[in-house]
Structures are given as structure tokens and as C-alpha cells.
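Allow me, if you will, to draw on your knowledge of protein folds for a short while. I have a record of one protein: its chain in single-letter code and its fold written as C-alpha cells. Could you please explain, in whatever detail you think fit, how the C-alpha cells follow from the sequence? The record follows directly beneath this note:
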Amino acid sequence: KDALDVGSFVHHAIEEHIAGRHPSFSGLTGKLLREARISYRSFLSWEREMRPEWIASELTIHHGRYYAGTLDALAKIGEDYYVIDFKTSKEVYSEYFLQLAMYREALKMPENRNVFQYLDWERKPCESTAPALFGYELCGIGVLRVPKDGAPAEWKTIDDLDEIREKTLAAMACIVLFYGEKSRRLKNNKMTAGKVAKLINQM
């Protein structure tokens, strides 16, 4: 529970920072407050080094009636655009990338067009495997781990999603079967994108 509390506060602090507001850790005390501040400072150090151009944060997207999720951030880093997930976990687990890949696929759906209405992305060529998002190209996915112990932030990316394409399609097929063929409700269902990603990754 403590880890979840710290993670939630750090996510919120990063969201506030990206939005140009001053983050607050009100509600945390003692060890949890120290850990949250350390994680946040780790994020700021990474930001100073990598100089991302933040496009948006906390974007809720969905893939038809099958699965939904909230993207932590979209950013341009260097010449590439990334779907980014922030983590305070002890390490970067491989299922994080599978879940991000599923969200990236969902971004291609017409129902998410509103996500891009206010974004002024530069049109640029990208690898042929990258999906075209309403005229823009999204090249990769990345996980930024901001440790609570003072260690430097860990930034891991996958630019060529062919590496995990088979698992991505398998995870999506499981969700389509679970929600579509079995007519189960999306809301309050245990078969979340994250859990399916973890399950498929273990195969």
C-alpha cells in the first residue's frame, strides 16, 4: 500500500509539473514523503538531461469496447515521439512495454482522434512499422523508472515494436475474446490490459 501511495503521489507530481503547475506532496509524511520527493527529483534530473518536449499527459484512451487505459505522457525526445509510462517500481519489468504497445495500438483507433485535436505535432518520416496517427508518426514506447532510493532515473525504450509484435497481438486477441466474444463488461472487470500483458509476457 505504501508503495502504491508513493507511486500515485509521484505520478501526480509529474503530471502537475508537465502542466506547468507546482506539485504538492500534501498528505504524505515521514518515509513516504522522503521517498516521493527523491523520486520526483530523479525525474527532474532525467528531464534536464533528456530535454523532452512534453506534448500531453494523463490521456485516457480506449480500443473500442475491449480495453482502455491512461497514458502517462506523450513526448518528443530528440527526433522521435514516445508513449511514456512513469514507474517507481524496483525494476523495469518487460510487461510494462507490452502494455504500452497495446495502448499505442489503441491510439490508432478513430475514437481517440480527439486526443490529437489540440496537438501540434511535427510531421516526420518514421520506420515503416510505426503506426500513422492521423497524419503523425509515433516511433516508440518508453518506460521511465524514478527510484525511491536516490539512484539515477532509468530510461528504457523500444523503438522497433516488431520485437514484441507477436505478444502484443496475442494480448489484444485475449482481450477481444474475453470482452467481445464472451460479452463481458469492460467496467470493473478483472481482465485489464495490464494484467493481460503480464500473463502473455510469461508465456
The chain has five helices and seven strands. Confidence is low (pLDDT under 50) at residues 120-136. The two ends are 28 Å apart (CA to CA). Residues 43 and 78 are 17 Å apart (CA to CA).
